[in-house]
Amino acid sequence: MNKRFHIKTMGCQMNEYDSDFLAQSLIKNGFSPENEVGQADVILINTCAVRAKPEQKACSFLGRMAGLKEKNPELVVGMIGCLAQMKGKELMKRFPLLDFIMGPRELEKIIDIVGEIYDSRQKIAVTGLKGAPPSPVNCPGYFQNQTSGFISIMEGCNNFCSYCIVPYVRGREHFRPPEDILREAEHLLSEGVREITLLGQNVNSYTWDDPDHWNFSSLLHAMGNLEDLSRLRFTTSHPKDLSDALLGCFQKMDKLAGHIHLPFQAGSNRILKLMRRGYTREEYLEIIEKLRTAKEGIAITSDVMVGFPGETDEDFLLTLDLIQQVEFDSLFSFKYSDREGTPAAKMPDKISKGVKVSRLQRLQDLQSSITLKKNRHLEGRQLTVLVEGTSKKGGQLTGRTSANKIVNFDGDSHLAGKLVEVTIQESYLNSLKGKLTGS
Ligand code: SF4
């Protein structure tokens, strides 16, 4: 009998990539995807542990699934990803419907584990952290009709920022060989993908020594030579690893998008030190200046946190000040939450929820006014847009500029996957509206 699987993905782009990895492995082994969770024979929940919210969402999803096993005792339910790595065994006790948990470094075992559960109905936990990042099986047709795709170039992180759970749940940095990455890119391009985002917790620390010495910029150059590739992106970068060679890529490579996501997390040197970020606000500001010199008009986005233990009003004002100085294109902003097992979780002087909420609101209001102002400056300009397809509402085409701004405009669906010229007519907080002026 043909078994159907459903994957529920929560969290970051890395998790989306991992879900595609699992889906392709399952399809290659005779399973088929199922949109309705209640109709699936195998349910996989791919979760994130970096912040509290996805964890709460994953638990409430598991709670809602409890009745399914009574209806279908053959159902196999597994939890994958960082949360599985961090709290999987505890969650298996709390949610008896969970048959297995699998850490993010064990994805290659998915077929064996599902098979073993069908054979024995024993609960299984695999949470090793040492394996090299595997290459996906590249299932033909899986990425057809997709303009953008992801490629993971590394796993794990060596930085140990004091608030972050990633080095504990994804392990230490481990890179994929360049030839594997380029092979995967060729496959995505053969499926019709035109924009590739290289993924990793700290992509600009990429290095590979065998047989030649590779670093992140040489990998970018090799990717840029792929004929069918229209645009190349990467995320996430650490400010302390941003090299002159990478700045040179922004200067020289036409295909490299004019956008960088460069988390700063806090604007106060005292808090940055407690966070163990490895740079000061002055150094961060210097990097921003270098980026803007290397690539005029480069879009800069970032991550920032409010309410880190011990954060005073003065520290918070320094964060607002940095935001004002840099004028980010957009920000992912979060309230600090304790991640069990990290040094920050044990720090004194925790900030109350009320203070965190009001600081976050103030910060987001400031950033919204900056984003709106920057988007307004684009009105009347002609921008090159990579068309992704039809937008969810309104039936217009949707695509992205090199600076990663979403643009909606009228046009024929055959333009999907193409670079077109669009003149911006109206700007909003999260998108732009324009008129097709060249294709
Ligand atoms: S750089 Fe810091 S915040 Fe980013 S994944 Fe590594 S430890 Fe976490």
In total, the number of strands is 21
Strand residue percentage: 15-25%
Count of runs of 4 or more consecutive helical residues: 12
Average pLDDT, rounded to a whole number, is 94
The CATH class label of the largest domain is Alpha Beta
- What spatial form do the alpha-carbon principal axes imply? globular
Unreliable stretches (pLDDT < 50, length at least 5) are none
Q: Termini distance? A: 48 Å
Structural class: alpha/beta
Write the CATH architecture name of the largest domain: 2-Layer Sandwich
Bound molecules: iron/sulfur cluster
User: Oligomerization state of this entry?
Assistant: single chain
